């Protein structure tokens, strides 16, 4: 039973790491969206 629990916990750790990596990727994309929107507003103001 202890071995099985350790294996399950290891799998949870792998999933947790994947989730953190995905959240980091999402944050980077959100920042890029903000940059694009900021440039679009700046361009609109200059027109």
Give a written overview of the molecule.
This protein is mostly helical and 47 residues long. Helices cover 96% and strands 0% of the residues. It has one helix spanning 2-46. The chain starts with a helix and ends with a helix.
β-sheet strand percentage = under 5%
Q: Gap between N and C termini, in Å?
A: 69 Å
- Helix/strand class: mainly alpha
Low-pLDDT stretches: none
Helix content: over 70%
- Rg result: 20 Å
Q: Let me know the largest β-sheet.
A: none
- What's the order of the H and E elements? H
Average pLDDT, rounded to a whole number, is: 93
Work out the number of β strands: 0
The general outline is: rod-shaped
Count of helical stretches: 1
Indicate the topology.
Layout: H1 2-46
Task: Report a brief summary of the structure.
By secondary structure, the chain is mostly helical. The chain has one helix and no strands.
Task: Provide the descriptors you would attach to this structure in a database record.
mainly alpha, 0% strand, rod-shaped
């Amino acid at each position: 039973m202890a071995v099985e629990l350790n294996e399950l916990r290891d799998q949870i750790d792998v999933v947790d790491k994947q989730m953190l990596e995905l959240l980091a990727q999402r944050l980077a994309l959100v920042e890029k969206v903000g940059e694009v929107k900021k440039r679009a507003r700046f361009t609109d103001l200059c027109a």
